[in-house]
Design a protein that fits this description.
Rossmann fold; Hect, E3 ligase catalytic domain fold; 6-stranded mixed beta sheet; globular; alpha+beta; 45% helix; 5-stranded mixed beta sheet
Length: 580
């Protein structure tokens, strides 16, 4: 007798508020799933996905939902069972989008209370659209109720945020018979002294940089308990109305109830203020004086352009300090078009060298001591490495073109990234198996609900972290390696190379695009540079150093007795550098 193949099903549940969570406790949800299984002997349960305490308007904010979609794409189950469409999505467009996505994965959705099964074609039309529209309208009502509740909270001086405010300790209390907890902010005297110190120093005429140094010299700690300060931390303290007892609302806003994207509000006229329930640390007069000083020192900026930086150049992308930090671009002499460009370790630019910090009386142990790297040195080394490594100029264009053509086939040359991605994907598979075993232990009685939830929370957190790392690795592999992008790079590279090799002199500067085509990375050390070339399958660097000044510099390729992976003999290139 032929055995009927069972339908692999998963259950999805979502609770978005404390009230719902109390009525439909997680343990009760588990019992409901078990009862549904008994009523459908043709089902075989694979997993249970849930999201608690998150909005229903955007599925991308729901980790459980997105994990369910990833598992559907991997073919782990055949059907999703959920109570009602409003638990699935509250946006008509999004409901249709994901219903179709699951359908393309071969997965249907059963909405029990709504009587809709997407496996039946007629249910994917009028009834589905009607129920999705009702869910969307409910979302709008929820958003309106939330805004009304926020207005009441603002009127009562309730502070929104994580509560990690320098100068205050956050506590929660719950009066007998009350449902909601009350948040209390009490002054932390040690931290409050730091706040007063910041205001006093600024009012005495000190700037943010000097205040930063003084706080570090005195060993004062940030709200996170760190002794390393940033000017941005200090600026936020000086601008925070909370310190004189006033709470500012609407610094950010949500663009719509459907998309739930948070935006920064640059229109200060739309800010709202309310007296807080906490004790102020400074006076309003002190705060106003600080704002007046900041206004005279600040540079006006256009809305939406605050903090916008110019595009980073190719050398800055390639360079990395031996301490592990990226570099930042700087100018060390000249003006206008005659500015001399250099690169500096970001840690040094932000915190200063150990010597500088020691002179200022600041903690100096463990800080980077990297010096400026002038761009002309990089161009000088690149010129000689390029011409010496590839002496046959006619072969340069063919080699570079072939290298980029290979990228078109492989869609990324980074073997280390691919290895890391494979390892992380294997880790994600193992976590999925752990999650399934945890569910099995609950169903067969090996685990109680409390232990199950503890395990589930840890596994879910590990899965989320692994998914984020996988997404970042995949982006790294695919970014700038599309067919159109690489074909355009080949075209431009050929033109630049043709111009470069047609000029036979030592002062001809190698184009940056040519450099990025052949160089993967340059590590900056105190006394030399390590160049990692794309042409070297062994991924061993060429170590170089530059001695002298502009127009009298010499490039040394270090001997293989020091660096065995370098060229097979000592060479001294004594050609003039281009003064750029």
């Amino acid at each position: 007798m032929e055995t009927t193949k069972k339908i692999r099903v998963v259950f999805y549940a979502r609770v978005s508020t404390e009230h719902e969570a109390q009525i439909n406790a997680f343990e009760n949800q588990i019992e409901w799933y078990k009862a549904e299984l008994l009523r459908h002997p043709e089902w075989e349960m694979v997993d249970i996905y849930s999201d608690k305490g998150v909005t229903g308007t955007s599925v991308k904010k729901r980790d459980g939902f997105m994990q369910m979609y990833a598992d559907a794409y991997a073919g782990h189950f055949d059907k999703i069972v959920t109570r009602e469409l409003s638990r699935f999505a509250r946006n008509v467009e999004e409901a249709y989008e994901y219903a179709r996505k699951f359908e393309r994965c071969g997965v249907s959705i059963l909405f029990l209370n709504d009587g809709i099964d997407t496996a039946k074609s007629e249910d994917m039309t009028i009834r589905f659209a009607l129920m999705a529209s009702l869910a969307q309208e409910e979302s709008r009502k929820v958003s309106t109720r939330a805004k009304d509740g926020q207005k009441i909270s603002m009127a009562n001086g309730v502070y929104y945020g994580n509560g990690n405010i320098l100068g205050y300790d956050r506590y929660e209390s719950k009066a007998p018979g009350e449902h909601r907890k009350t948040v209390i902010y009490e002054i932390n005297e040690e931290q409050a002294e730091t706040v007063r110190m910041i205001y006093d120093m600024y009012l005495s005429g000190m700037g943010l940089s000097l205040i930063k140094d003084e706080l570090e010299r005195r060993g004062r700690r940030t709200a996170q308990g760190k002794t390393n300060w940033h000017e941005s931390n200090i600026s936020k303290v000086l601008k925070n109305t909370f310190y004189y007892g006033l709470i500012t609302y609407h610094k950010e806003y949500v663009d719509s109830y459907l998309h739930q994207k948070r935006r920064k509000n640059y229109d200060h006229d739309k800010f709202e203020y309310a007296e807080g329930r906490h004790t102020p640390i400074i006076t309003k007069e002190e705060f106003d004086r600080v704002q007046n000083i900041m206004a005279t020192r600040s540079v006006p900026f256009q809305q939406g352009r605050k903090g916008k930086k110019p595009a980073i150049d190719e050398w800055a992308k390639l360079l990395k300090c031996s301490c592990g930090c990226n570099v930042t671009r700087a100018h060390y002499s000249g003006a206008g078009e005659n500015k001399k460009v250099a690169y500096q370790c970001y840690d040094v630019a932000r915190n200063g060298t150990p010597e500088t910090r020691k002179k200022k009386g600041l903690p100096h142990e463990g800080y980077c001591n990297s010096q400026f790297v002038q761009r002309w040195k990089l161009e000088f080394m690149a010129n000689h490495l390029f011409k010496d490594f590839l002496p046959e100029k006619d072969a340069v264009v063919d080699l570079a073109s072939q290298m980029l053509a290979n990228y078109l086939e492989s869609a990324g040359e980074d073997a280390d990234t691919k290895t890391a991605l494979a390892k992380k994907e294997a880790e994600l598979d193992a976590l999925a198996q752990r999650k399934q075993r945890n569910m099995n232990f609950l169903l067969d009685g090996t685990l109680d609900a409390v232990m199950f939830k503890q395990n589930e929370a840890q596994i879910s957190a590990d899965i989320e972290a692994a998914q984020e790392e996988i997404a970042a690795l995949r982006k790294e592999l695919t970014e700038n390696n599309t067919q159109e992008v690489l074909e355009e790079r080949i075209r431009r590279l050929k033109a630049l190379l043709a111009d470069y090799v047609s000029v036979d002199n030592d002062d001809n500067i190698i184009p940056e695009l040519v450099v990025t085509a052949f160089v993967k990375q340059i590590i900056v050390f105190d006394d030399h540079f390590e160049w990692y070339l794309r042409t070297d399958a062994s991924n061993k660097p060429i170590a170089c150093k530059v001695k002298g000044r502009v127009n009298t510099d010499k490039v040394f390729t270090l001997s293989d007795s020091i660096y065995p992976y370098c060229f097979p003999h000592d060479r001294l290139l004594s050609k003039k550098a281009s003064n750029c």
